[in-house]
Amino acid sequence: MRKFAVVLSGCGYLDGSAITEAVSTYIALSELGAHYESFAPNSDFSSANHSDNTSSENRNALTESARITRGQTKPLADLKPENFDALILPGGFGAALNLSTWGTEGSKCSVNETLSSIIKNFHEDSKPIGAICIAPAIVAKVLGKHEVALTIGNDKATATEIEKTGALHEDCDVADYVTDRENKIVTTPAYMYGDAKPSEVFKGITGLVKELFEMA
Questions:
Q1: Domains in the chain, please, with CATH?
Q2: Comparing C-alpha atoms, which of 184, 180, 200 is closest to residue 192?
């Protein structure tokens, strides 16, 4: 049985993992009969009011992520790459705020040290990595020197920042995905298209998961 590690960043697209993207990932994995486990950093962040995008109280990324997984989220520090065949990073702006500082620093950002090490280990062991929405920016920051090919859709400003890391950006429709077979990286834009329909997001993520499953 193929084993997948899924890294979340909270609960809610403005400050954590996009719920539709995370749930689409789990449904696609479940349909394929894959085993999966979820992880998130045990760190606090300033949450956003999803009604008006104002700042709210401080919350914890691990605790918030557990809302999506029915309590089954483990600390990111417990993720051991040797126990898994593939890695998936759903999007949501939490990936750019809680897993990295991409949201405020772009290509000059830093990535959570534990996650950076995990991504490098998967890549070094030739295990596939999937990233959704803005999460490919994290992969670009960590693996850009390997000229990895990926997508965040067609947002030119973000694509330009991604290419500053050394990564190669490819435009992609919301319901499609981009595969870098040499580096075993699969990415899909999802809600980088703000007007995307849930069905389109699900289609792109399902394609990504199937591609990763075959690679694993």
A1: 3-215 (3.40.50.880)
A2: 200
